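FORM 7B - TANDEM STRUCTURE REPORT

SECTION 1: FIRST PROTEIN
SEQUENCE AND TOKENS:
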Amino acid sequence: MRLDVNFAALDRLRQRMEAPLQNWQANIGLGRVKDIIYEPHEREIENLEELDVGPGDTIIREGRRVFLYIREFYVNAETFEEACSDPEKLRKFHIVWCKTLHEMKSAGRFERYVTSDRVDEPFGVALRTNSGEWACGDTEIYVCRWCLQHSNWQNYRAAPAKQRLSLVTHFSRRRFLETNHVKFADVPSRSDDSTPALGRVKDWSEISRKYRHSKQFRCEDCGVDCSKKPSLLDTHHNNGVLSDNRYANLRALCKICHSLKHRGWYKVSASDEKAIEALRQAQRSPLADQNP
């Protein structure tokens, strides 16, 4: 089906104004119109006050159900396809206020989550692979086991291990919504169209350099002075949101201290670790002030 667009009245007005006429065709079908009016699925959470607790500790926004998940994260894989081949290795999405969400809120890292209204479609994610490159796309991810435990979905608590695994891998978001008789989630507040597809902005290197310079290239945790070797000092995001570059959300950390914030994936090379320890030792020495 096509749209018939007639601008005869506009053409008559252009003639009265002695403006030149131009041939124009609206080559837009309904498929293209659908793309134009399409509302994005994922939105960031601007304020915790926007979210409420519904029946069964479900996650409610503006009176309707939403799901939460972390869109950007690191994976131990070489490619996007390899990472997504086993959803068990990916981050999980949340259906209720489980212990993980409470822990993330207490740790000040809740802003990493986005709300989603996807029911039958895969989730949109940005994955950083072993090469350090980011890759974006849609993929299936599994529901959080703590959420199933908390809500006791399909008698999850009493189910044997094999049945529990099946409840995870075959979890239906649509069935969950329909069974609990709640309305479908409204469009949340932040979308993956309105924010960077990848966490870091293009000028991140300059932002990081300026922030570390404002801290005299000193680690804000251990105090080591890295001004002579600035590459040993990183800029860490306190809340884990890589696009949130407010100075209040940044912290200058030597690579050793930074690795303690990201146990399991952030690795410090032996040479960098040795260099930082040498600086720490030299700056603790009483002779340090005498040998600039």
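SECTION 2: SECOND PROTEIN
SEQUENCE AND TOKENS:
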Amino acid sequence: MPESITTMQIIETWLAVGFTLMIYTFLYKDNPIFKLGEYIYVGLTAGYAVCYAWFTVIWPDLIYPLYRALTVSFHIKQWEKPLESHENLWLIIPLVLGILMLTRFSSKFNWLSRYTLAFIMGSVSGMSIPLVVSANIFKQMVPTLNPFWGPEVTIFQTINTCLILVGVIAVLIYFFFSVEHKGAVNKVARLGIFYMMVSFGAAFGYTVMARESLVIGRVTKLIKWASPDYYYATIILLFIIIGLVVLTELFSSRGERTE
């Protein structure tokens, strides 16, 4: 073992390779090995999310500040450090709303969680709608207002502005249903369909490229972990997981025959 690689790193590498290959068995078909890796991944993610929320949000931003505010308010203990702006009794409101969310586990009192959900939906909508309008409407209108000519405007900028302006108008006409799509309106609407297909294709291609980059990165890691420095983790675990998949298939087929 190289001095730069510790025993803990070797263990972490073997676990990473094992779970990666377990998930990749889904390329064959849905099987118990894939489900085991999926359940472990979901469980670890949920546990990590709960711990992260507790130690970074609930305790420092809710429980501890509320505890300080209550103790100072009722003179239970004198604090040398003065209260900060976020340490006040108003924190009881989010505490109650959070407790009401736990009533989802009760069939009798689960209706109480609707108050918390309504508050969350209302606040999130109020904060996100202005941002969405600004990002998806106002900022996208700016390119249509660029000048067509000028001392600093090149021919390529002029062509780009014309294409954007024509595309925006064509797409808007396609969704304008107050006028029947016949004649010139139909031709412009069909041009809008062309613009939308180009946009959807570009978005889909970008998504595929992003996923492919993740796969390439993971395969590169697997190749690296197949080296002697990591005790041939990828090669050994590949044969082990393939053997487990074959065994599960044999047992499942035998069970179907007995039935």
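SECTION 3: OBSERVATIONS ON SECOND PROTEIN
The longest helix spans residues 32-73.
Residues 146-224 form one domain.

SECTION 4: SIGNATURE
Preparer initials: ____
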